[in-house]
Specification:
By secondary structure, the protein is mainly alpha-helical. The chain has two domains: 12-118, Orthogonal Bundle (Arc Repressor Mutant, subunit A); 120-154. It has seven helices and three strands; from the N terminus they run ααβααββααα. Strand 2 and strand 3 (95-103) form a beta hairpin.
């Protein structure tokens, strides 16, 4: 919210930035759901694979940092993706404490399907390429500022 109301009765849900972001996330889910259902993936599984398609052979901890997920949340996702045949989890030969994640051949084939499946999602936003890029950067700045604020508070 941008202003500080004098009374609780002045609070309007429509003016909360956090609610705008939350409800936009719900709207994204509605658009993504049928596409991801056809691919047999949840959104979290999908973004995990996108991060691995971008950079294969990552450690679990490094991947978790990229995805803003704790290891105890990410590990079950990776186990499920491994069971589906899309990734392999292997101990790092130079440091047995580290587990590395690699995309399998089947996972690479899924990438080709996913690229086609999500190709029209940009138009669902109603934004042009410049607007889309600007908004994405602004949201990343917002996220980073919030995380920095939370780190200082905690």
């Amino acid at each position: 919210m941008n202003t500080k109301p004098e009374q609780a009765s002045e609070l309007k849900l429509s003016e909360f930035l956090c609610f705008a972001v939350y409800s936009a996330n719900l709207a994204f889910s509605k658009v993504y759901r049928p596409i991801l259902d056809a691919l047999g993936l949840t959104y979290t599984q999908y973004v995990t694979l996108v991060a691995l398609w971008e950079e294969n052979d990552q450690t679990v901890s490094g991947l978790g940092e990229k995805l803003f997920l704790e290891s105890n949340t990410l590990t079950p996702i990776l186990k499920k993706l491994e069971g589906m045949g899309y990734v392999e989890r292997l101990r790092d030969p130079t440091d047995e404490r580290q587990v590395r994640i690699q995309v399998t051949k089947s996972g690479r084939r899924l990438r080709d399907k996913a690229v086609v499946a999500v190709s029209d999602l940009g138009t669902a936003t109603g934004l042009g390429p410049k607007e889309f890029s600007r908004l994405q950067k602004e949201i990343v700045t917002l996220r980073n500022s919030l995380l920095q604020s939370a780190d200082h508070a905690g």
